[in-house]
Amino acid sequence: MTGMVRKALTMAAGLALVASVASAGVPDNRFSTSDAVVVGNASGTAIGGSPAGFDVVVKDVNNAPLAGRTVTLDFSATPMKVYNAQNAGTTLNCAAKTISRVTNASGAVNFASRVGKYDNGNNVDVIADGVPLFVVKGRSTDIDGTDGRTGLGDLVQFSAAYLSAPATQQTDFDLSGTTALGDLVIFSAQYLGGVVGTYCP
User: Fold this and answer.
1) Mean pLDDT value across residues 13-41
2) Domains of the chain
């Protein structure tokens, strides 16, 4: 190896090290993770996937978990509706259509989102400390997003999917890939619970 090549390799390694150090502590989507779908309701009960709720783990370029970071779910690019009351520990910005929570010592955060309606595109932005990480889908047992509850209109839509169109995305609340018995259990609990909320203006 010539001296010039060795010098170039050393310089490249040094630049990579500088870049890594400079990015340490900054959320990085290559090492962070999140669920693929936010599943919400009017009650603020964690549902969707296993474990229940929408989970995000924030890490930096060195794969180190980042504690105390604000993770924001931004629904502004979706037709979904955010309720004007959220669970304790969740910060709400009605005007921006966002909800936020702070990561724990493992860089993890779990949302039990109070939202209505759905978006089957990847349009819900997942952001950590202002750094965009992912875009995901969103849905709610309040399927129609019209009356602040999982009500009769939602039952009509759920029943049609359950009985005749199991591939319907917006009624797959347990994220199994189809609208099936597990989703009926989730939907029924919300429907019978009768919780009524108010959407952000």
Assistant:
1) 78
2) 23-145 (2.60.40)
